[in-house]
Specification:
The chain is mostly beta strands and 245 residues long. Strands 1, 2, 4, 5, 7, 10, 11, 12 and 14 form a nine-stranded antiparallel beta sheet that branches.
Length: 245
């Protein structure tokens, strides 16, 4: 009975993203590191809308079964075994860039866009080196108690409830990350949610107050990969593009 209830819960969440019974496409071999130029002022698409080309699961050569490309969306379904899960990571690395994407989270859901990731077996998770822009249902997610854990914030570093203004669950949010010469600026739905320069006095202050203060590799790599986080909840991403600065 417990397994049946869990399955029904997952299906209910997936219904937000076009239903539990719709067909899904998974790319099982992601050796291709190419991305697609969209011909618009240097913007390059990181997701072609129909495959997971250009991505892989962190510390693996392929994309796990939990991530699928469907109906122009990259979707995460937690209703798979743990061995088939993990954060989805770009094949390429980026240093100075502007990233745009849209995300949609299930009720109570949590995820994140993590950047500056150094992919190395000694770091068993993307967040050990990468910096995160939070993706969250501010209303019902468990991790909604701290203001710098709300949607759009620079996770556990900078954020407030005044600037965290996500759309209702089931609607698409527009996120933007700009990183240039260490200066990080975030926007959610056209509202600036954070700005700080890595290595500045402000950065050192917020870092000291965070859980990352003693982490060996955190934010130590100027150039790194970008990840969409598996936090165990249904989430979808689309219109993912990047521009080198």
């Amino acid at each position: 009975m417990k397994n049946i209830k869990n399955q029904l819960s997952i299906c209910l969440a997936l219904a937000i993203f076009a239903g539990c019974n719709s067909g899904q496409t998974t790319e099982n071999n992601q050796q291709d590191t190419t991305v697609t130029a969209d011909g618009n002022d240097g913007w390059v698409s990181l997701f072609d809308g129909k495959s997971t080309a250009g991505w892989h699961t962190y510390l693996k050569d392929t994309v796990s079964a939990a991530w699928t490309a469907q109906d122009g969306e990259l979707r995460f379904n937690p209703d798979v075994t743990t061995e088939q899960r993990g954060d989805l990571v770009t094949n390429n690395e980026y240093e100075n860039f502007e990233l745009e994407l849209e995300w949609k989270i299930a009720a109570g859901g949590n995820s994140g866009v993590i950047f500056g990731i150094h992919e190395d077996p000694k770091f068993n998770a993307t967040y050990l080196t990468g910096i995160e822009m939070q993706v969250l249902d501010n209303i019902d997610a468990e991790d909604n108690k701290q203001e710098n854990h709300l949607a759009g914030t620079l996770y556990d570093l900078i954020g407030s409830k005044e600037v965290s203004q996500p759309k209702p669950v089931g609607e698409w949010n527009q996120a933007r990350v700009r990183k240039q010469d260490g200066l990080i600026t975030l926007w959610l739905n056209d509202v600036q949610t954070a700005e700080v320069k890595v290595g500045s006095s402000e950065w050192n202050e917020v870092l000291k107050a965070s859980k990352f203060k003693d982490w060996e590799g955190f934010a130590q790599y100027a150039k790194g990969k970008i990840a969409l986080q598996d936090h165990g909840n249904v989430v979808a991403y689309r219109n993912i593009r990047i521009k080198a600065l």
